[in-house]
Amino acid sequence: MQRLIRRTRPADLWTPIGFYRALSPEGPSFPFESVEGEADLARSSFIGRMPRCIYRVDGWRMEDRVPEGCRTYDLRRVHPFALWREALEALTPEAALEPLPCFIGGLAGYLGYEMAALFDRVPCTPRDALAFPDAILMQVEALLAFDHVTQTLSLFALAEPEAEGEAAARRAALEGRLQDPASASSTITSASTSGASWETRAAQACIAVGDAFQIVLARRWGCPIAVLPFVIYWTLQRLNPSPDLFFLHLLGRRRNGEDLVLISASPEMLVRVEGGEAAVRPIAGTRPRSCPLEEDRALGQEP
Fold first, then answer.
1. What angle in degrees, to the nearest 10, is found between the helix axes of 229-239 and 16-23?
2. Per-residue DSSP letters for 14-68?
3. What Rg value do the Cα atoms of the chain yield, rounded?
4. Cα–Cα distance between 216 and 45 in angstroms, integer?
5. pLDDT-based confidence at 137, cuts 50/70/90?
6. Cα–Cα distance between 67 and 250 in angstroms, integer?
7. 189-199 pLDDT, tens per residue?
8. Would the pLDDT of 44 be above 80?
9. Which of 96, 208, 209, 248 is the most buried (most CB within 10 A)?
10. β-strand partners of 262
11. What does the alpha-carbon distance between residue 221 and residue 236 come to, in Å, rounded to a whole number?
């Protein structure tokens, strides 16, 4: 059982982006932000850095990178979710004396569509030029939680009973970099696309036979950028504040060796599990349910 080390300080002169820039993280890190929304949904923002472990899945191979080295697994013999569950159980801290935010660590990253093949028979897409691994998850040593309601910042570190001093030192080193709010200004280039066309008949056929009930059509486009990826996230956050924003910097983890950065600003919480209860709040393509049954069917016929 690990001990959770926590230090809370006032943060009314800061913003989560200011914290992230002040830390100047080198290597894999993330800010997960909640900028707008109800207090119970958008109360906290989180910053993670100093990864102690990075999991990377590519096909049937997974590697587990730690400072001491790298281990590889054959996913035809071992299920990655069993390994991740074991890792999360090892991170369970002792009971806290005060309430904790909904996230104090764990694994952060992404799971690609191809991971569905570990649970069901699904067609796997050919490898494309993006060269993204099927999944990347990282466990960080230090986590900062920004409370928008109380305007406080909590620094968290998990420590083994015999290594509490080291964890406290890492926390103190982070706190020493948070003396004054940082300021900066940047510009960003933009790109536009035109002439988009969609082939919808195949999607409609899948819906008709029951293979899908909702399909979101999308198109990938690319352009060179002349700014740092975080400036793009910063600009997006200012233009489109939402309850679910994230910037994931996964250094050098693409198959071609280049950096991988994922950015998102979404008003929709896909799913949240807390205290054994799962909550979903879908937005796109939904209709309210109603009683009596006749009214419910009428709603389903609306265009």
1. 170
2. --HHHHHHHH---SSBEEEE--SS-TTTSSEEEEEEEEEEEEEEETTEEEEEETT
3. 22
4. 28
5. very high
6. 16
7. 333 334 334 46
8. yes
9. 248
10. 248
11. 17
HSE-up of residue 271 (Cα within 13 Å, Cβ side): 4
pLDDT score for 78: 93
Q: Structural domain boundaries of the chain?
A: 3-187+225-268
pLDDT in tens, 198-243: 467 777 787 888 877 777 777 778 888 888 888 888 888 888 888 7
Tokens 């799971």 map to which residue?
A: 111
Q: What are phi and psi of 121, to 5 degrees?
A: -85, 105
What are the tokens at 254?
Answer: 């693409």
Q: Which amino acid, 103?
A: F
3-187+225-268, CATH topology level: Anthranilate synthase (3.60.120)
> Quick one: tokens of 237?
């956050």
How much is the pTM? 0.73
Q: How far apart are CA 50 and CA 169, in angstroms?
A: 13
Q: Answer yes or no: are the C-beta atoms of 139 and 106 closer than 8 Å.
A: yes
How many whole angstroms separate alpha carbon 39 and alpha carbon 296? 31
Q: 109 and 80 in contact (C-beta within 8 Å)?
A: no
- pLDDT tens profile 66-98: 878 899 999 999 999 999 998 888 776 665 656
DSSP conformational letter for 96: P
